[in-house]
Structures
1.
Amino acid sequence: MSRRDPLDFAAIGRRLAEERGPTYWRSLEELAEDPSFVAFCEAEFPSVAPQLDRRRFLQLMGASLAFGGLAACGKAPETAVPYVEQPELIVPGETRLYATAVDFAGYLQPVLGRTQAGRPTKLEGNPDHPACRGAASAITQAAILQLYDPDRSQAPRYKGRDASWEAFLGEAAGWRERWDASAGQGLHLLLGASSSPTLARELERWLARWPQARLYRFEPYEGRRYAAAEQAFGRPLERHLHLEKAELLLCFEDDLLGSGPQQVLHASRWGERRRAAAEGRGKALLIAVESCPSLTGAKASERRIANGAEQNRLLRALLAEIDDGPAPELAADEQHWVRRMAAALRAHAGRCLISAGARSDAATQAAVYRLNDRLGNLGHTLSFSAPLQQLEIGGQPLGDLGQLCAALGAGEVQSLLALDCNPAYQAPAEAAFAAALEALPWCLHAGQYYDETASHSHWHLPLSHPLEAWHDGLAADGTPCLGQPLIEPLHATRSASELLALLRGEPTADSHAQLRETWQSLDEAAWRAALERGSIEGRQPTPVTVSAAPVTLPAVEAPGGYEVLIRPDEAVWDGRFANLGWLQELPRPLSKLTWSNAVAIAPRQAERLGLRNGDRVRVEVDGGAIEGAVILAPGQHPDVLELRAGYGRRRMGRVAVGQGFDVAPLRRLAEPWRREGARLAPLDGAVPLAITQMHHSMKAEQAPARRLPREVARQPAMAAEQPSFYPATPAAPPPAGGPLGEPRWGMLIDLDQCIGCNACVIACQAENNVPVVGAEQVAAGRAMHWLRVDHYYEGSPEAPRSSFLPVPCMHCEHAPCEMGCPVNATVHGPEGLNQMVYNRCIGTRTCASYCPYKVRRFNWFDWTGDDAPLLQAQRNPNVTVRGRGVMEKCTYCVQRISEARIDARMGDRPIASQTLQTACQQTCPTQAIVFGDLSRADSGLHYQRETRRHYALLEELNTRPRTTYLAALEDGLPQAPADETPEGRSDG
């Protein structure tokens, strides 16, 4: 296949040069006015009539005739059978909440499980837990889909064939006798990261019985946090960032706001700091130094693009300025940046914070700890405690993957148990782990899926989902969490602690009894209180007083060729969530890529090589190579390539297999996340990437995502600046929203708080039964998400600024869609909601063409008709599952409004709008979304709508939307005088 024509970057430069004032854009194709982009945006309904050849046409017509006779066949009768005896505490239609937790890379994520008639349907953040404060990440919420995944392992397997627990117990008894005879010599256990005290106690019993056994831990993208602390303080420690206290935050390749097990904790604390600054209580400056775009860089007050060698020079220069170390040779603009930064850090001593990415080398992180120590930040914005993860068991340090590979190569391993990990896929290719497993006398894999490691093991045992078993562990802030099951195991599974006890010869071990034994110090009242809260009070980690040792940071030379950064995917992480359709179809926050990974490259290099999105390339370094599609990443360093892990799965499930490419060939045991000296070569052909960045384009006269300088935002709003179609704000709110006393529902979205994390998108999908459509349909513009988060760029493609704009239905008071519908299927309710009447809709799609905000979604097919019964069990029974040919959109979670209305009626009181939350509002870690009754002064909407920051999207159209926005705030470090500013500076 021949190469496609590259983008016209000269046209992009000319257009930017001709613009007056800021230029907002969403894609390079838009800037270049690429014909394919123009055609896609001008198509009213993209890909409505796909091209068919004659053969395919005849096939479809023949099938239509064959199935036409089925129209005369009536649906099989169904009978609703009532309870013979009503279960206790089960009321049909009533929602119950239970505090529990799910695991993510060894840290528990505290959640509330929402159940209907004993069936879990949704996970929400636990508002009583300090680690999340009621918020939940996209990955955490998707755990409910994993519970009902039909591809989850349902029974043991022996050499790929179905087996039974009884057969396994019979074989395990023989191996247990061998281990007893040798005191465990040759027995090796590889464990996923864990902070569970109960699991640690079971492992201690293993070592007590088999003292010669060896334990290892494996977390593919954990980084070097503990090694860095050991270098700086002489022992491994857990890092705790108090972002709510940091008025100046400097990040070196550390995406604190990005996806990961600590995302919600960091985002909520950062949001608290931003709110305080917006109210005039201190500052909230964020400086990002990074080579590739990230969420932290997108929200930064100032972002500097630098590769690894350049970051090393800047950090060594800061050490010289603050800690009197040797100064490196710097360019003029680098000297200017270092002096500005050092002055700002000194001015905020004790109120600033410097951080480095977990996957940076240990020396870099140790140098950052030294800087924080010298600035007086330790004990204030940065603290340390004992490690939260289990690093040793019974006094035996846990080995790493490299040590296990050495033992395998030396022939020391006779029996291997891989517990809740997948090294055959997640380990670097040089480990040749799959081949090593095949050569072992006995290998056992235990996990939730029959994955790559399971396929090379003798036995595979299915583990229970966290929502099916009792478990414990530590949250990201160190608070102990208790996880209770929401449902009996759906399949023949065991928990990890039960499995370890079973292998010791206790087949009747029960996870509840194990957990109660661990926490036997709690009396019955304290135990029940802990279960209700989901955590144990008074058991937070004790801060450790430390002092960082002086450090000499070695110089890093600029490599020849490309620097390759390998990072976990924002949605499927390292591949453990790759079989979850919600996460596969979730547009990545910055690239808006779905259903695949890609080789991210800077626009400058793409122009040089003649590449555009989807073109195939080959990346090679030290004999390892991958082939995949390329994606252009504005704001990326030209000498850096970024790869995302989690794809190229060969075993797991129907959703995961066949998507993207595996990054393992480029990883090494010694340096698994960063490679130097890579070569990139274009290949023929292209891969159709499902990117949503160009979808649902709005034509606006003003910037959709606005910014205001902080000093301007604090000034009172002028009457002339208020949107002309809004009535003047009365001195006191009206007593009711309508003639019958109905509320006036509205929503306010604070763009200064929004970090673009997509947690709201998954919350909406889980709450409202939004279907998954697949990569092909996403590429055709048919993704069904009711809420989208638009990503806008401002400035040049080499170093743009980013803005995020969540766009739900606006619920316009003058709604164009209502005027366009010929059958009155979209109507205006008495409370101001723009409502859909599904059984009236005949699918003309007129409303979608009339909507200027592009928030309506059409069911082109029956997306859910073929879903497995297990997946159907996850759906929210309070929300209609829409059929083919029906339009749908955001409803402001009308089912929650109805539930609150019923509760208020039963209590003979008004609706408590302060406690009524939409799904997107409830899960937001930074509290960027506010929902309430506009007719009530205590709803949290009034005073914010009267500020200078308030505006309506596309206000020139006079649609009077109920959903409005607060502009983001601009701030930054003071600039140097003009005569001190060097030429060629790149710190913008």
2.
Amino acid sequence: MLKRMLLGILLSIPFFSWGFQSEASTNIPDRVSLDGIFTSDVGVSGNSATVVDDTAIITNGSANQVGALWSTPENLLDFTQDFNMVSYVNQGAAAAASGDGLVFLLKSAGNTFTSSGAAMGALGENRYQGALGIPNSIGIEFDLYGNKASADGFFDNGITGPFNNNHIAVVYPGTSTGYTDNFNIFGSTRYVNHHSLITNVNLASGNWTRLELNWKANEQDYTKGILTFKINDQEPIQISPEYLNSQIFQNGLSSEAFWGFTGSTGPTYKADQRVIFERVPGLVNADTSIRMFDGNGQEILENGTVNGGSEVTIAIEAEWLSGKQNWTDIDLTTIIPNGMNLVENTTKVNDEIIEDSLIWADNSLNIPSGIIPNLGEHNNNPTNKASITFKAKIINDDFYSQSITSRLAGRNAVYESVPFNFNVADVTIEAKILSHQNDEVILDNDIDSFLVEFGWTNENSLLLTHSIQLEQNGQFELIKEFEGTEIEVSGSFTYDIFESFLQLPYGQFNLHYNVTNQETGATSSAKIALYKQNAPTVSISPLENQSIFTVGERIPLNVSISDRDSESIRLFGKLSNNELIDFGIYQLSQLEEKDVALEVDTSNLEFGKYTFELWGVDAEENESDIARLNDLFIQGTLSITSFPSSFNSGPIKIGGGDVKVEDMSPVTVLDQRLFNEEWKLQVNLVGSNFVNKNNVTSQNYFAHDSFLYYKINGEKFSITTTPTDILQSKEDADGEYTLDQEGENGFYINPTNSMIQGTYEGTLNWNLISAPI
């Protein structure tokens, strides 16, 4: 602050000073978009603050400026939830010619500032007793000038620092306790009460001073949360809970607050004061991490030791937790140390491989925006997590304090992961298990050997002792131990552990391979976790005397199932390329075979030849071999699809000659069977020949045997009470047959002179017979 021409008596006031030197950044940090975050509409004219290219400019270096940028009502701080803010302040490079400074502020309601230059847009006037600044506020001031003489005021009385009295402190602009007034007949002085004072900072060096604000909410009572701020890389400082409650929360009446920056310049001492943001509170709350895994997928802990020559997987993980916006346009910068080399073509983003030439330069991974997906749950965004993985080979040498760093910068948030630190041990001997993977399942069904390949390295070419062990439930069994007679730098051998494997109970076990330097006793061990399991067995009994089924008929299956280490099996089946059939879960007793009766529905199947497959999956997701029934046939039926239900010839003259029945309905037979089995269609009168009941004598008169006949190609077939064959199957014909009634062919009535006048009635019976003709 800079203020002139104030006379008074100097009184000492207490303050607390932090004696470290806080190093600011010389590089311009990444910044996020400030679209819609701030407003400069504070109800007065002359506000110098503005936002240009996502940079908040509080004062632009001109004299006598006062500026303020406040969050919009849509971007208030919500103290019911955790939030974090990271910003960088640059106050120019004018050194001793700089003034006045700026203030980061929290305010319970409204956006405002004060006009006095000495007040940096936030504090009360230093010439008026009791004058207060912005009400209901808490500030962190970045003061470029120590006002502690009568010529320029006494706001900063007693503050001394190595950089023109630059200082950072917590202030309470709108409270009477934020000031000490000394007004009397001998003169007047007014001091600002500074809290958590930091003096060893060079704010006017042109560097960027990092300000991080962190709020840890209390779920039961938001007023009991913890608010801290942090300057550059120093320890966090807690804001007074009492002032936070009285000034911001209004003693529990408000859980939200405006936030922003105010600043000013004087008539002579001035500064170009700018603020950029890595993280705007409430926009994107995310978590990022760096993790390392060994070749067996086991996580390597922070500051752990990794063997030289080993291969590791690095995982950079990001998760959107909450916020008003999705995390968008994310790019990544990761630096790996000189103690490791990238394994080519192993870099993946969410399991999709990215070509090395697009993203790697030496030990630097740089993934541009557009490859990592946007993260969040707004606007139906599909994911809130991203994983970037790659493999690296550890150089075999002694390296200490190796560090991996990573930074994810999006349009609206920047997160720097906590560096992952590790050490590297130079390995002169190393044991390796080469032929199996960690957590591999070994099934004991129908195996007669269990070959494992072991390998070692021996850089100093010393004699080694080799040993192989099995471990289960803390119990070890030595399988093989021998002393090597060769001194090669590296080697391998294969050993069959089948007999020992068979003796193990089902479940997890560990395979150990150890090599020991016979001279020094130094040992290297390799271990993998394996699982002994048994796959289910499933068998189907052959069908008895049947392999052909009609559509809709159910196929009966007699099935046997067993599993030595599971208590249940889910059965699945399939008829050739048709849909999968889930028969459900069947409980069983271990070591016992169980018989199960199944049925397969054929209602929706097409005609044809099928193979039925059946298999089981146990609780450990092991599958049985497939059991099969071959040469199953699904066919249709032999049926009469249409036949006359009635017919009426109309008036016929007795003795007048044969008359064709014109309204006789079609007679059709459909044969949908797969094989050419013979059949014939018969017709006969039921009970008697046609009978005349309606005549003048009231007696029954029966028609002669040839009264109704069927004619085909000139040949006649009389229809009497004796069945007559009128249609039969033909070799190589299609499945549908229709009785020929075209032209001269068809049904006829023969009204001979022996008949009397009246109406003749009869009932026809149609009979379809599948039998050799």
3.
Amino acid sequence: MSFSTWHRSPAPKLFPDLEIHLSEMTFGEPARRKVSEDEKKKNCELQKYVCALLNSGGGIILVDIKNIDYESDMGIGLDIEQGFRKFLDPSPVHEFIKWKSRNSKMLFFVKSWHSSNAHLCSIDTGIKQRSGTSVLSVPNYGIMDFIKKKQKEEDKDDDEEPLNKWQKLMPSCHDDEMYQEACQFYEVGNAQLGQQLHFGESVNIELKSFQSEKNLQKRLKEVLPVYMSAFANTGGGIIFIGVDDKTKTVTGCGAGMNCAELENMVRDICEKSKTLALHFKGCTQKLTFAPEFKIISVSAHDKPLYVVAVKISGCCCVVFEDDPNCWQVKNGKIFSLTASEWLKEMQPSDTVEKTITNIGPQSLMPRPESDIRRYQIKNPESEGVAMASKSWAAKISQTRKSEVISEALVMRTGSYPTLYCYVERGSPELWEYARQTAFQLKQKLVNLGGYTEWVCVVPQLVHYETGENIETEKSNAPKYPHSYLVENIRAVEKFMQSLTIVLLSISSPYSDKLGCEYFNLLTEEQFKLLNQYNNCKHLFVHGAPGTGKTLVAMEKIRRIEFMRRQKICRCETRVCFMESYDNFSAVQHIIVDEGQNFRDESGDWFKKAKELTEQKEGTFWIFLDYFQQTHVKNNGLPPLSSQFKFDLHRVVRNGTEIFDAMKTQLCKVTNGPGEVLTHLSDMAKRVAVVHKITGEYKRIQVKKENLISEVVKKVRGLTENSEYSPGDIAVLFSTKECFEESGLDRMLWNIRVPYSSVEDMNENSIVVDSIRRFSGLERDIVLLVDITAWPPQIMPNLWLCGYSRARIKLFEFRSEN
């Protein structure tokens, strides 16, 4: 990886974007015809900067115009356009680059690169191929085909013996008479000046004279890497230097040179070529690329002459001529990629298996916060989306400014995407903050979110009280071209899709909320249960913690035909079901959740429910998890061997860190009959998480006297310094009495955080209750406070029940005592 800095203008940035300043260049077709060689080199520098911006999310290049008589109707110059066309082909130049002159500068607006044929844009890929008797560079648009073709050839050879693999990597025309003649000449190892050879050039043979070459070392360094790449990528071949390609006679080369010196020279070139032989991701052959060479002495009358012969085997993957001419911007510097870095980024990503199914028409994007209503969009005729936040900078892992009260990202048709920052007064520091936040948002939309249209994010400070825009000191700053305007509502939708990816990819309260929306999707396992067992009248659904039993139970209720038609659903506790004066004779279908925690002390609830549903040919499904049985009394369920059951093993309701914490407790559950323990052991082995949303799990040990104050401190930190609301949080104790004795209610009241019990829970208050009473419910964030259990053997069950209540963050507070 090599770095180079670019010229920075002392003036402030004109755009909230990547800006590169280039010193004077001549523009216009008439003037470009007369430029010097040094001036032409500037064109190469411009191409490098364009390539860097293409691969770094786009940006602007500002170039001082050298010729004072330049007019915009003169164009930029045919050679400049042709330089762009060379690496953008087959796409038209204007698809990725637009330019306009302003005052004494030429502004090049560069879009982010996107192509199904290449993940990066390269001025030169550094990969050569043989085509007949010519050498061709593999262009940008041919890279993916090249890689796929090579991988296909490797897959075809995987079952063959090693010897056969090596034979395949030798030239495809190895049985051709001409190639056999070339191999024989190579093996003989000597030649006569003027000797007539019986072979000429072909796909796998190249002849070069270099008889009169004065600087042979320079020419060999230029030519040999090209042919080693070309032959290696086309099945192999031989190059002879010192043979005239037209007459096929030996001319010799390196007159007067020492043979050992020539050998060292060629050996160094071959060794470097070996370092440029790379394997694709997933290559199973991993064959070593090892070109051979011979310095063949040519018998002559006066000074010594030689034929340099290099025999190149085919490579199972790819051999580069040199590092690609490919650039990126990183940390304020432009750097070129090495061949290995380039290949790593260029290879196709692994396909993602579709293992989730949406259970409804809801969008993955949560609704924006309610305070969005206070921000008015000036043009009511345009369509779009506005998303408000305390801090968009915090959402994308940037530093928040306390002077900024709130922010709104507005995307509407006919306008530039705009970040409105609401402040009490403007200042240069706040303008710089707004520009940096807008720039980082745009970069992440493109580089992380994969947004492929022309895009910018324009910053704007707004007075919080009046709603009036605060003017910047650069009111005459140039604007982006019209192509950056949001064209239609489809562009808005694409923008929002990319923004969703960005927010999911960065750890923040907002990504946590999006992650929870993901948890509301059905796994393939859950989908199978609801569809293949839809007509099953009586079923026991067993699921480990986090497998989404309650979600499936609710979906099953929605899918029952009678419920869909009548929209009637009655929710009762086990005690009410057994002791109510109502005989429930009108009930046809019964869905039981958390069945393992039912008891038969009020009567045989299972028998009653079964008889009710059988009388009307209704549905009777029981969802249960013996891992979470938090009592040792009889649960009233039939023996496991008598249950017609379906097992759920795929965890989707909890972050991976929480899942890991749960898994450590699974093997500790030891209470229950033998058949239940066997069932639990099997479940523990098969349970697995099906997503990569990490979440957070922390165990916090404090002195008992400081326990509740630490819990309050955590609650305050979550609600005051981030975008979590009280409705995202649950604080759970072993029992309700433990909470009442803790004094937490008084301390929450002091910090003005609303709280409620399970009976009165709502989206505006923290739930504070016991684990058992919160069973079957969830919150994004759960705080467990010094959990203990009686009898002791159900302790792991209670921990599991508590752990699985947390979707994204779990904080486990334990007393040191």
4.
Amino acid sequence: MGQSMIGKTISHYKILDKIGEGGMGVVYKARDTRLDRDVALKFLSSHLTANEQARNRFVREARAASSLDHPNISVIHEIGETSDGHSFICMGYYDGKSLKELLEHDPPDIETSVAIIIQIAKGLQRAHEAGIVHRDIKPANIILTDQGEVKIVDFGLAKLVNETGVTETGSRGGTLAYMSPEQLQGEKVDHRTDLYSLGILMYEMFCGKRPYHEEHYAALMYSIVNTDPPPPSVINPTVPKDIDELILKLIHKNPDKRVQKAGDVIQILDYTLNKKTNSEEKETSGTSNFFTRQTLVISAIIALLAVTVLSLPYTGGPLLHYFNLNQTPEDIHLVVLPFTNIGDDPDNQAFADGLMETLTSSLTLIQPADVSYWVVSASEVRRQNVTSAAEALREFNATIAVYGSIQRLANQVRLTINLVNTRTSHQIKSDMITVPLESLPRLLDEAILKLAQMLDIEIGSETGIYYLASGTSNPDSYEHYVEGRGFLQHYQNIDNIYRAIELFERSVEQDSGFALAYAGLGEAYWRLFDDTRNTEWVNLAQQYANKALELDNFHPSVLVTAGMIQLGRGNVTNAITYYQKAVELNPANADAYRGLAAAYEQMGLLNEAEDILKRAIRLQPTYWVGYNQLGDFYVKQGRYTDAILQFEKVIELIPNSNYGYMNLGIVYYYLEEFDKTIELFHNAAEIMPGPILYSNLGTFYYYLEADYEKAAEMYEKSLSINDQYHQIWGHLASALLWAEEDSSRVAGYYEKALEMAMEELKINPRDADLLVSIAGYQASLGDHHNSLNYLGRAIEIAPENTVIKGNAGIVYEQLGERNQALSLIIEALKQGYSLAEIENDPHLRDFRNDPRFIQYLQSVQ
């Protein structure tokens, strides 16, 4: 491959230009003619996909990398193969230059280097959290876009090279210099090999050369494994001490003695910048050399700042205020991001996680006058795995991100808080809180007061602030409680639940009047019941929730916990009472609204459920989640026109997230406006491809094209990203069934879907959608009796739900219950259920010839 490829069309990509070549393959700039955008096509060298095993490995690695969604990671749009068997990856194309080019022609100053490294570390942090290791971090794999973003490219490809055992002639030397000793010696590697490579890259950026630069491979390998380079500060005396020490820790030959997490790198560099800024602000005549070279063009305005702000500190200067880059937005839409734990103590990490949750909960209680104010719930931040200001803006339309770090000192705890304007990515303010260990309960109170001060919010009696109530003055009790909250955040792992219970129990041992700790025990035992289905945990959950209510029945968190347990036990009336009281005390409590709306819906009080969802929107009219929930509610009722308005509002509020596009596409699917559906799905794919999107595309091929093989391909692609959705396993089984695949394989997938769904049912036995899915799997497996039983339960729980009626009718037809199927399907169609699904579902081939159904269709045409 070479220049001869230019002008050719591969699939729907027109090759425009050759932009690079190396041991892994050739990269071309291409035009995606379907979505009208520029992309980068990387055609892999034939040795990387030389046989079936190698091709499967390539697909596996590329799919894993494609699941990474982060502003500092190059997006993978597609993996494919040409007609003559050449594998390729379609990636995002970015105008800009590689870090390698920058270092060769225009080396950046220290502050610019730090800004670049922080973005690289953030990308690595996201990948490592997903269990993905790059293995080839080097300047050539770092792209600096003209918009000022850093993109890491070629995730997963280095592993392919390692596993093929082929030497990268021509590029091996450059890669070798950044390899960790363990990678070089063929030992097992983990994420710390990337941190080593990052350290080598940092050394080169700050010193102008790599620490190991021998020309011959053997000499270079020997040096990497056996010798220590001079500290960066010896070569460049201007390197700050903190950065000097950080680099030496990153390139330590023993992985256990390195900095262990990318998040720690970010925190240390942030701290270094803040310390530098604070020291400059104290010197009235002092100057800063920030951006002394215009090396990183962010935009026309930022380029102007890079030239003119030479004598100003990094933050707080009048030019930054003039351009509104570091000012507090008028609308305060807060998201508290996961706090960084400085150090390796896992208990301190739990404390950091718990403090993030308790701080978020307390901030929802502030209700400043004349300000648009809301706070994203901690559960939503965790669910979306949002860790950066850019992600907070994209996913939640948040205007301010709160970063924090916790450091445990000898007799003190230090909390650093940074406010970042998500729209400009500039720090607004930063502060540090240090409390002695014996006064640890003061930490949350001081953090709230400090944040209110930083946001210019006055906290008084009129705000209804409640954070000082139901607390404890016992430092040990408070510490155990916060650590317990941290472990309980990750309740998907049962060991974390047991650890949380242990910590909450120690908390109440220290202070038997601490209501929130008892509420934590109630929630933890309920989570344990969800996981084990051991009913003895239900009684303990209820016992501790009751104790918390006895101590304080006015704290919203206590009430929400009580409501959750009551709703889970089917005591819907009691649940409504608790949720209503929580909403009255804290009108911004998203968990209380969700619980109350779910309780109303379970009772069939649809008007009340709709009212409470609308009330949540009135209180937070710029928060997209409320519109999304109301839109979902309308879809269930077949009110598609109303749903469209809600999802259009979601798109307006978060145009760079795929939620609104996907949900709106589903509504148009039900309305049989399929051109709009496909357009919206492609819009969503352009923003962020994911498992649900591919599943939706599979459904399109299944129902509208009757292309069951293509549908199965989409479902398999979805499962390769996330295999935890029972629905998608069931969809795959159905697609393979009608594609006339091996029956044992089909049955195996139905059984897997059924097993996963039954586990999920343990969490909420009144989930009508889940009950219908289970009935469908049972019908497909020939379990007639149990299928009928689950269908009856679903209809009893949600008798007015349009989707439940239609889906249940299809299962009744599978079971041979034509009369029941006819009744439910016609009712669902009258309420707006998609006729296209009925006309195209292969399970209904005989049903569509029933004279009664034909007569109904004729009557409505």
